Amino acid sequence: MLFVTGTDTGVGKTHTATVLLQQLQRLGFQAGAYKPVCSGAETETSPAGAQKPQYFWRDVRRLQQACSLPATSTDICPQLFLAPLAPNVAAAAEGRTVDDDLLSRGLDVWKNRVELMLIEGAGGLCCPLSDKSSVFDLVQRLNCPVIVVAGNRLGVISHTRMTVELLLLSGCHVTGIILNEISPPAAAAEDISKSSNARQLQTWLPCIPLLHLGWNGQQLESVDPRLSADAWLRQTATAASRRWQAHISTPAAEHP
């Protein structure tokens, strides 16, 4: 298992997750995608005469399309809510609640189907998922390596350090940071921090592999020339596969 979290909302977690899924497939790994809960639906273009609007969740659809084998939207995300709010708040707006146990139990539909699972959180680490659990709580419950996605913008140094240091202090393994370009190259003149953020992250978090994903990019690049992106991803995927095999071989009653 491999958990993809972000320093905040809007940093490109889903895009990064889809790139990871595609690159894993290219390297020969069969990976599934799981997003425990998703809020913020969009409306499909309905045919004339349709009585009810048809909703879809863009993040779920993108993960579904990037998977290396067929999967339903429910396989990807078993708990979906309409409003673009924190999941527990979006659920309450519909008179529902997030099933806390299902956040991790929803992974069970992927047993014996894939070599490893890529799990995408919601928002940042402290974003509430249910009335009882945050993203951070779920990361600790699953006990799997974490990739931190950070948007290349002013403030990313502090946000990334806080996220990574919280994970490390809790005993979580941070396997990499992906610095994602969330604005087009022309915006660099408006935010001059974009040219120095990678160097600063390497200075302050020297033990964590740092990778870069360009604007709408489809290929990861390693910031450290001593470790290629492919080598990093192979190492990360191999460890994540071992963690997934251990998870599926554990009786359900023993899962956290």
What does this structure look like?
- The chain is α/β, with parallel strands linked by helices.
- The chain has a single domain, classed as P-loop containing nucleotide triphosphate hydrolases (Rossmann fold, 3-Layer(aba) Sandwich), CATH 3.40.50.300.
- Helices cover 35% and strands 18% of the residues.
- The chain contains nine helices and eleven strands.
- The chain has helices at residues 13-26, 58-66, 73-76, 87-93, 102-105, 135-142, 156-169, 197-204, 229-249; strands at 2-6, 31-34, 38-39, 42-43, 55-56, 80-81, 116-124, 146-151, 174-180, 210-213, 221-222.
- The strands form three sheets. The protein has a seven-stranded mixed sheet, sandwiched between helices.
- A hairpin with a 7-residue loop joins strand 10 and strand 11.
- Helix 1 (13-26) runs parallel beside helix 2 (58-66).
Question: Total helix count?
Answer: 9
Taken together, the total number of domains comes to: 1
- CATH topology, what is it called? Rossmann fold
Rounded radius of gyration (Å)? 18 Å
How many beta-strand elements?
11
Poorly predicted residue ranges? none
| CATH class division | Alpha Beta
Order of helices and strands: EHEEEEHHEHHEHEHEHEEH
End-to-end Cα distance, whole Å, is 14 Å
Helicity range of the residues?
25-40%
- The name of the CATH architecture is 3-Layer(aba) Sandwich
